[in-house]
Every structure is written in C-alpha cells, then in structure tokens.
Amino acid sequence: MIRVNLLPHREAKRKARQQQLAILAGLTAALALAIGGMLWVVFNAQVANQKERNKYLSTEIAKLDKQIEEIRKIREETASLLAKKQVVEGLQSNRSEPVQLLDQMLRQLPEGLYLKSIRQTGNKINVTGYTQSQARVSAFMRNIEASPFLENPNLIEIKAVTVASQRANEFNLDFFIKRVKAEEKGGKRGAPSAPAKAPEKKV
Length: 203
Hints:
Elements: H1 7-93, H2 97-108, E1 113-121, E2 124-131, H3 134-146, E3 150-163, E4 166-177, H4 182-188
Antiparallel strand pairs: 1-2, 2-4, 3-4
C-alpha cells in the first residue's frame, strides 16, 4: 500500500486561498475607497452648487429688499404729496369761506339780536349773544335753516341775564357751514357763486 503525504499540498492550497482572500479584500477596500471618493466628490459638488445658489438667492433678495424700500419711500412721498395737494385744494375751495360766513351772519341776523362772540372749529360755528326776546333766537335759527350757506342750527343754552342794568336773554347756539363735497369740487371749482340772500325775518 502506497502512502502519499498530502500536507504540503494542503498547505499550499491554504496559502493560495489566503492570498485570494487578501487580494479580494484589497480589491474590496480599493473599490470602497473609490466609491467613497466618488460620493465625496459628488456631495462636495452638490454642496458647492447649493452654496452658489444660496449666494445668488441672497444677492437677489438683497436687490428685492432694496427695490421694496425704494417703492415704500415712493409711496410715502406720493401719500405726502397727495395730502399736501388735498390741503391746498381745501384751502383753495374754502378761501372765501370767512367772507361768506360774515356776509351770511349779517344777512340772517334779525333785528334786536346782538352777537357777543363767534368761534369756528372746522365747519362748525358757535355763536353767543344777547336778545330781548327768545322769539328772535328762533327767527335766527329759521334764517340759518333757510340759508344756502349755513345749516343745522342747534340751540345749546338760553338764559336770563342783566346787561347794562337791563334784563336780556343770553343765548349760545351752534350751526354748520355747508361745504362742497369732494365729488362736486371738480365741476364747481373756481369763483364761488354768491349765496342767495335769505329773507330777513323780524320779530
């Protein structure tokens, strides 16, 4: 019977397998490194691209913010100019108002009724005065209602007082000036028409 020693053959075969495993491990590691490097390059490129996009967006947002600020300033200037224009138009439309008010006060004031003070707040007029008869105050209020320039008389107070050793009635009343509405100003701009004279009523 022939005996064959297989130990050297098995040892060589084991070494060959170990070499194959080492080569396979090296190839696997190299492939993993290559893939990792490729992924790093790709991700780094994407990050760089995103940074560029973010930088571009930041630049454009800054431009838009600047434009928005300019638009806001323009709107503020426009609103300021419109407000000034409205004030000027109001002054132009109401420049004859004091003259008309005094004219109407003289026209509508009944005989025997004397004014002490006249105060104006906007289109509201407050007057105080004296009269011997309360009926003259009623006549004054009716004349105001009939005036094309005045409206809405409201008697606040009337009381008996002594003036220059004589008994009289002191009254306090409000009324309003009729003003042209904004939509009517365009057609009525220019010289204001003289108000019609209301008939004077004597009591």
